[in-house]
Amino acid sequence: QVQLVESGGGLVQPGGSLKLSCVASGRTFSSDAMGWYRQAPGEEREFVAGIKGSGGSTLYASSVKGRFTISRDSAKNTVYLQMDSLKPEDTAVYYCAVSRRDYVTFGVDYWGKGTLVTVSS
């Protein structure tokens, strides 16, 4: 059974940093795309960042480009999201996603349960 477990969320002041982790289990994900989505209160879930299974090419939403960095450790079936220069509008539940396609934006096959990030002074 595939499971995605996120960690690293919490409360941070504007301008601060957080690093999210997502560990996937149940099979090998080295050839799968992985990524992050987020959902703010009252809003739809939106794409944040993605990384290909092979080659490590990355994709970012324009709202986070230059502030967030996605990376993965295929040996550990883990994807990370380094979030810097956080803003109050980054407050959301962040979800890990896995796709058998090139990018998670082409369709998500597995979702994590989410981790809450709150940016507030």
Q: How do you describe this structure in short?
A:
By secondary structure, the chain is an all-beta fold. Helix content is 0%, strand content 49%. The strands form two sheets. Strands 2, 4, 5, 6, 9, 10 and 11 form a seven-stranded mixed β-sheet that branches. Strands 1-3-8-7 form a four-stranded antiparallel β-sheet, with no helix packed on it.
What do you see in this structure?
Helices cover 0% and strands 49% of the residues. The protein has no helices and eleven strands. Strands 2, 4, 5, 6, 9, 10 and 11 form a seven-stranded mixed β-sheet that branches. A four-stranded antiparallel β-sheet has the order 1-3-8-7, with no helix packed on it. It is globular.
Q: Let me know the average pLDDT.
A: 95
Which structural class matches the secondary elements? Answer: mainly beta
Low-confidence stretches are none
Order of helices and strands: EEEEEEEEEEE
The separation of the N and C termini measures 40 Å
Helicity, as a percent range: under 10%
**Main sheet summary:** 7 strands, mixed
Beta-strand content bin: over 45%
Number of helices: 0
Count the beta strands: 11
What is the general shape?
Answer: globular
Indicate the radius of gyration in whole angstroms: 13 Å
Topology of this protein?
Blueprint: E1 3-7, E2 10-12, E3 18-25, E4 33-39, E5 46-51, E6 58-60, E7 68-73, E8 78-83, E9 92-99, E10 110-111, E11 115-119
Parallel strand pairs: 2-11
Antiparallel strand pairs: 1-3, 3-8, 4-5, 4-9, 5-6, 7-8, 9-10, 9-11
Brief descriptors of the model:
mainly beta, seven-stranded mixed beta sheet, 121 residues, 11 strands, globular
